[in-house]
Design a protein that fits this description.
It is built from 7 helices and 5 strands. By secondary structure, the protein is of the alpha/beta class. It has a single domain, classed as Rossmann fold, CATH 3.40.50.300. The longest helix is centred in the middle third of the chain and has 20 residues. The radius of gyration is 15 Å and the shape is globular.
Length: 174
């Protein structure tokens, strides 16, 4: 029997390396990739760009559209790798409703290093000033959630290999 489509959500605070690791995962596994930021309505991007944190009411439709995209990919028989901050358990609870098997990779890192990354990246709407609110909002991945907490130290290729091995992704999701 064939394994159901798998969705790996690479989560963590802004600047934790979600896009770098997720794109490598998608390339190595041959899975579809989606950047959750691309699912934000313009109003959310405008709000964050101005340095204002989103409310849960801002997030619910955004998370729902991401979940629906994952389900559409599962209906087409495709596995996915998705970046999403997924800072709270309630946000992850929406994402796990996607059809298929959903796993989380919570990227961890030193906040000082993450701040330095944020200062040097270009073309991203999330200002450094919102990092403290992300850190205070973060509810770490819990033992009863399917996935793993991975330190984002070392090269991106090494971290990607750790994710693949830890979640046994070469065999699909079980």
């Amino acid at each position: 029997m064939e394994a159901p489509p798998c969705h790996v959500v690479v989560m963590g605070i802004s600047g934790s390396g979600k896009t770098t690791i997720a794109t490598r995962l998608a390339e190595q596994l041959g899975w579809r990739f989606a950047e959750a930021d691309d699912f934000h309505p313009t109003a959310n991007i405008t709000k964050m760009s101005s340095g204002t944190s989103l409310t849960d009411e801002d997030r619910w439709p955004w998370l729902g559209s991401l979940r629906d995209w994952m389900t559409a990919q599962a209906h087409a028989g495709r596995s996915t790798v998705v970046t999403c901050s997924a800072l709270r358990r309630s946000y992850r609870d929406i994402l796990v409703q996607a059809e298929g098997s959903v796993r989380f990779v919570h990227l961890l890192g030193d906040t000082g290093l993450i701040l330095e990354r944020m200062k040097t990246r270009s073309g991203h709407f999330m200002p450094e000033s919102l990092l403290p609110s992300q850190v205070s909002t973060l509810e770490p991945l819990q033992p009863d959630e399917r996935g793993a907490r991975i330190e984002n130290t070392g090269t991106p290729d090494a971290v990607t290999a750790t994710v693949i091995d830890t979640l046994d992704l070469r065999s699909g999701c079980r």
